[in-house]
Design a protein that fits this description.
Helix content of chain B: 40-55%
Structural class of chain A: alpha/beta
Helix content of chain A: 40-55%
Number of strands of chain B: 22
Strand order of the largest sheet of chain B: 1-8-3-6
Structural class of chain B: alpha+beta
Largest interface: A-B, 26 and 23 residues
Order of helices and strands of chain A: HHEEEEHHEHEHHHH
Distance between the termini of chain B: 75 Å
Distance between the termini of chain A: 43 Å
Strand content of chain A: 5-15%
Number of helices of chain A: 9
Number of strands of chain A: 6
Oligomer: heterodimer
Number of domains of chain B: 3
Largest sheet of chain B: 4 strands, antiparallel
Radius of gyration of chain B: 30 Å
CATH superfamily of chain A: Ribonuclease H-like superfamily/Ribonuclease H
Shape of chain B: flat
Shape of chain A: globular
Largest sheet of chain A: 6 strands, mixed
CATH class of chain A: Alpha Beta
Number of domains of chain A: 1
Chain lengths: 220, 619
């Protein structure tokens, strides 16, 4: 066993990650509407990716401007520590996690299915950090992740309009309201938030014919 | 797992609300969500159903005309899915919004799974008023005994004679009595006991009741379900059960009560009315009307038939009240006829109609006779009010002395309208031209009509004014085919489908019918006769009939919402302060109903133009 573990470590990357990293994402000049996107949201035990853990993941793909509900997914993830106080935010209790899946299985599924996709999240640095470190731990290497951040897009849009931003103006709920989009009754649920984020992105990219490059520039 | 927001929306939206949970899950798995921006044009969908989630959309026909508007909850593209090869109109987005698209497989799966779902789309493709409804749950199972029995308790003492018992039963028209001693139930006696234990045994009619009564009968609590009473009756082979209220004697329930309760049918209500001997009982009979209407609503009886039934019941109440008045006041001093005007006369009464009536007397009467008819009119009008038909705010009622006239008096009144017409007097008098005899000597109405007829036809000035009065109001539709909304006193906005819909058709039919000497007053019959006599051409007449039916159905659909489920309806005796309104908010209609309403208004606009052309020129 120890030997195997050692070998895997030595050999670095697992094949699934290698394959993911070798699949190119669309060219930066591609219109964003034709680019395959995966909107995802994580719920975690805290905000520090080096100490805290993922407890749930929700995702839905967007292809040709359409959110494909048939591929909507939500997974609870086994967590090595107690969810502790974070339960008050996301509502997931330790007892709910008894039947959860291993992070390894969930991420394998994600990387296998959505190679070549650009990822989308609302306030993406969190998702990027947690996903990056989880992939590092499970598959022994760095994943090439490209993220669009709907929060950053909204921020630059509002700033361009010269609007003073209130404290919560960039929260997902406030953004959805601004576009007259339906809001979920449930917040801080990975799939519900991923769906809200997907609607927000569709609204954000609806007006102009943005290219992938422009959107990524706005996201950072 | 799926986003809860989508689930909630579909579960609230017809026809998806008819699907069971498992099928709804399948639907959501086969959906995609698309954001549309205004002026974006969606080509006819190939093999997918579009469901509007938010925003505003219009259909564009092949000439690039934008017509039907689609809003949240509307569907598009079903015709091509149901009948392959059908060319759908294109969809254009007017205001940013979201649409869902459902795959053809999932759509057909739903058609297969749910009859309601299928019926909904079949209705849409027929472009008929689709009438979808919830599965009919049987409310009878939950009916309690106290909902069924009258509070009247008929009691006799054990020492009374069987002759007294028989008399008491006859007087109260019941088939059984409770036998009580010092407030305690000791037995019951039924008409069958009188037959088999008294007459057949040749007992003396002075025999005390206690000798033949059934002692310590089985009882049932008034809060029990009716089916419990049925079970007890069949188990012990009895037809009468004393009802107790927390152990104390309360009344009696009979098999007949139960059977009658299952036959909530106009026929039973009407025959019930004709059996009542006083106002209080009549009031109770009339109180069945809301439950009856709720039943008719559940059975999806169309609007015009419901109006007909309401009219028949009002007629029966009127007839019975006229009879009871004569019981009280003695026979009338001369022949008379009770007249109904307006919607009761036309047999298209709605649940919110008030009284419009009058008296037609054979001849001029003495002061004493006039007094008699004043009392009779008061009795009937106040009786109708107690039975739930409100007094007329415009005082068009027989209780108004100006509306209790002899044949000659009515002739003078009508000739006055006809010969010196001006716009105002015509507006106030049109109601009298829809009159029908309800009670008394109906031949008097026929006589009045016959004497009046020669003066009416060929009087073009009269028809000029009558037609102008009919053109006073127009349907609430703008040049661009948009609804013109008005607000009522409660601040609700909508279109008044009576004042600016049904009444306009009624007015048009009246002008033509009077000019052609047609004596019938029902709007539908008038239009049919006008078509038979080729006064209206087949197409125009049929369009008006259709429009009349569409609008009447929409109004009935609106009024239905004011009916609580059968069994928990307030008695009509107390006129509720919130009467069903005729104001319909088009936004609450289904897209096709909205279009049908617009079509119907369009028909009226055209018919009004034709009327103007026919009666309002050359003067």
């Amino acid at each position: 066993m120890a030997f195997n573990w050692f070998r895997q470590h030595e050999n670095a990357m697992a094949p699934v990650l290698k394959k993911f990293n070798s699949t190119p994402i669309p060219d930066r000049t591609t219109p964003i509407t034709t680019c395959p996107l995966l909107v995802l949201d994580l719920e975690t035990t805290g905000l520090d990716a080096s100490k805290d853990h993922i407890i749930s993941i929700g995702w839905l793909p967007i292809r040709q401007r359409e959110i494909i509900l048939g591929e909507a997914n939500h997974h609870l993830v086994t967590c090595p520590v107690s969810v502790g106080q974070s339960a008050t935010i996301h509502g997931v209790l330790d007892s709910d996690l008894k039947n959860a899946q291993s992070l390894h299985d969930v991420l394998t599924d994600l990387l296998e299915r959505y190679a070549g996709y650009i990822f989308v999240a609302h306030h993406a640095p969190i998702e990027r950090a947690f996903l990056g470190s989880a992939i590092q731990r499970c598959f022994g290497g760095k994943a090439k992740l490209t993220f669009i951040d709907t929060l950053a897009i909204e921020q630059s849009r509002l700033q361009r309009q010269g609007l003073a931003l209130s404290q919560d103006a960039l929260q997902l709920r406030s953004c959805l309201q601004r576009y007259g989009l339906p809001e979920s009754a449930v917040e801080h649920h990975a799939l519900e938030d991923a769906y809200g984020c997907a609607l927000l992105l569709l609204a954000q990219i609806s007006r102009s014919r943005f290219s992938v490059g422009e959107i990524l520039r706005q996201s950072n | 797992m799926q986003p809860s927001e989508i689930h909630r929306f579909l579960a609230d939206t017809a026809p998806f609300c008819y699907l069971d949970l498992a099928t709804l899950e399948v639907v959501i798995r086969h959906l995609s969500v698309l954001y549309c921006t205004s002026e974006e044009i969606l080509d006819p969908p190939t093999g997918r159903l579009v469901i509007i989630r938010s925003g505003r959309f219009s259909l564009i026909d092949e000439h690039n005309n934008r017509h039907t508007q689609l809003v949240s909850g509307d569907c598009y593209g079903y015709d091509a899915l149901i009948k392959p090869g059908v060319q759908s109109d294109r969809l254009v987005c007017e205001e940013d919004g979201l649409i869902y698209r459902l795959t053809a497989e999932a759509f057909h799966e739903c058609l297969h799974h749910s009859g309601h779902f299928k019926g909904y789309f079949e209705g849409l493709t027929r472009r008929a008023l689709h009438q979808y409804h919830e599965p009919n749950t049987n409310p009878r199972i939950t009916v309690k005994i106290e909902d069924l029995i009258s509070t009247k308790k008929v009691v006799i003492a054990p020492g009374a004679s069987v002759a007294d018992a028989a008399r008491l039963m006859t007087e109260n028209r019941v088939s059984s009595l409770l036998v009580e001693e010092e407030g305690q139930l000791v037995g019951i006696i039924t008409d069958r006991d009188l037959r088999s234990r008294v007459v057949a045994q040749e007992l003396d009619t002075a025999t005390p009741v206690e000798n033949i009564m059934s002692r310590s009968p089985r009882c049932v609590e008034k809060s029990a379900f009716v089916f419990e009473a049925v079970l007890t009756m069949s188990r012990h082979n009895v037809h009468h059960l004393p009802v107790t209220d927390r152990g104390k004697s309360y009344g009696m329930i009979t098999l007949t009560d139960i059977i009658r309760a299952q036959q909530k049918h106009p026929v039973y209500v009407i025959s019930d009315i004709h059996h009542q001997m006083d106002i209080e009982s009549l009031q109770q009979s009339a109180a069945q009307l809301p439950a009856l209407l709720a039943d008719l609503a559940q059975q999806e009886v169309p609007g015009h038939e419901v109006s007909h039934i309401i009219t028949l019941i009002t007629d029966a109440l009127t007839q019975r009240l006229v009879y009871l008045a004569q019981e009280q006041l003695g026979p009338a001093p001369c022949r008379f006829c009770w007249l109904a005007f307006g919607s009761q006369a036309r047999m298209d009464q709605s649940i919110n109609a008030d009284q419009d009536n009058a008296l037609l007397l054979e001849r001029e009467v003495t002061e004493e006779a006039a007094e008699y008819f004043a009392k009779l009119a008061d009795f009937v009008c106040s009786g109708l009010a107690r039975c739930g038909i409100p007094l007329c705010p415009g005082n068009i009622m027989a209780s108004n002395p100006e509306l209790r006239l002899s044949l000659d008096g009515w002739m003078r009144k009508f000739l006055n309208f006809i010969h010196s017409p001006d716009a105002e007097s015509i507006l106030g008098s049109v109601i009298f031209f829809d009159a029908r005899g309800i009670a008394g000597d109906l031949s008097l109405v026929a006589e009045l009509h016959e004497r009046l007829q020669p003066f009416v036809v060929q009087n073009s000035l009269f028809f000029f004014h009558l037609a102008n009065a009919a053109l006073e109001r127009t349907p609430p539709l703008s040049m661009l085919r948009n609804f013109i909304l008005e607000k009522n006193a409660d601040g609700e906005s909508g279109v008044d489908v009576k004042k600016r819909g049904l009444s306009l058709i009624t007015d048009i039919a009246r002008v033509y019918a009077l000019s052609a000497g047609i004596s019938t007053v029902s709007t539908r019959e008038r239009l049919q006769r006008l078509m038979q006599q080729k006064i209206l051409d087949e197409k125009d007449g049929q369009n008006l009939l259709d429009a009349f039916e569409v609008i009447a159905n929409l109004r009935w659909r609106q009024h239905k919402q004011h009916l609580s489920p059968a069994g928990e309806v307030p008695p009509t005796g107390e006129v509720s302060s919130h009467r069903p309104s005729n104001l319909i908010n088009p936004q609450q209609l289904h897209v096709l109903q909205r279009e049908q309403l617009k079509d119907s208004f369009q028909v009226i606009i055209q018919a009004q133009a034709a009327l103007r052309l026919r009666f309002c020129r050359d003067l």
